[in-house]
Amino acid sequence: MEYIKKMKGTTKSPPAVGLLEIILSWIGAFLGIASVALLNYYIFEGTDFVMIIGSFGASAVLIYGAIRSPLAQPRNLIGGHVLSAIIGVTIYNVLNNHMWLAASVSVATAIAAMHATKTLHPPGGATALIAIIGSEKIHNLGYLYAIIPAGLGAAIMLLVALLINNIPKNRRYPEFWV
């Protein structure tokens, strides 16, 4: 019974955010994803590079909408994506004949590695998974996937977060770097 009681939660829902916070989150997410997408569609089109990956959508929620979260800080954003990408590619290279196993091992290992390195960033789990289930273009990148798109895309989104999140006096990003 005590086990079931734990599932009730211990606190109330956080308060709603103000209109300015909503607008700045929207602008940041729009500009961050647009910057990465523009590179993808205008510079890398026709190449083997894939610049935009699904996990960046979840990163946008954190770095533009939950900027005080420890999971949204630069170390976590960059480290979580790059480390998880390396793990995903490695696991794909070893277990690509067993995709169900590769998928589960890559995400679980990415979480463990992010915990161990203090770079926990939930979208990193998706970055590791994309290395497994992604297209042939993703697989052909090999370890370059950790640099382009994972590292460079996250760095571009970080730059936008630094610019947008510090516009109002009462909003500050990041909380910490290392």
Description:
This protein is mostly helical and 178 residues long. It has one domain. 66% of the residues lie in helices and 0% in strands. It has 8 helices and no strands. Helix 2 runs antiparallel to helix 3 and helix 3 (55-65) runs antiparallel to helix 6 (123-133). The chain is globular and about 45 Å long.
General form:
globular
Radius of gyration: 17 Å
* Annotation, overall tally of beta strands: 0
Please indicate the percent range of residues in DSSP E strands (runs of 2 or more): under 5%
- Percentage of residues assigned to helices: 55-70%
Distance between the termini: 41 Å
In total, how many domains does the architecture comprise? 1
Mean pLDDT, rounded to whole units?
Answer: 95
Q: Report the total helices.
A: 8
- The parts where pLDDT drops under 50 for at least 5 residues are none
Query: What is the chain-wise order of helices and strands?
Result: HHHHHHHH
Class of secondary structure makeup:
mainly alpha
User: Biggest β-sheet, characterized?
Assistant: none
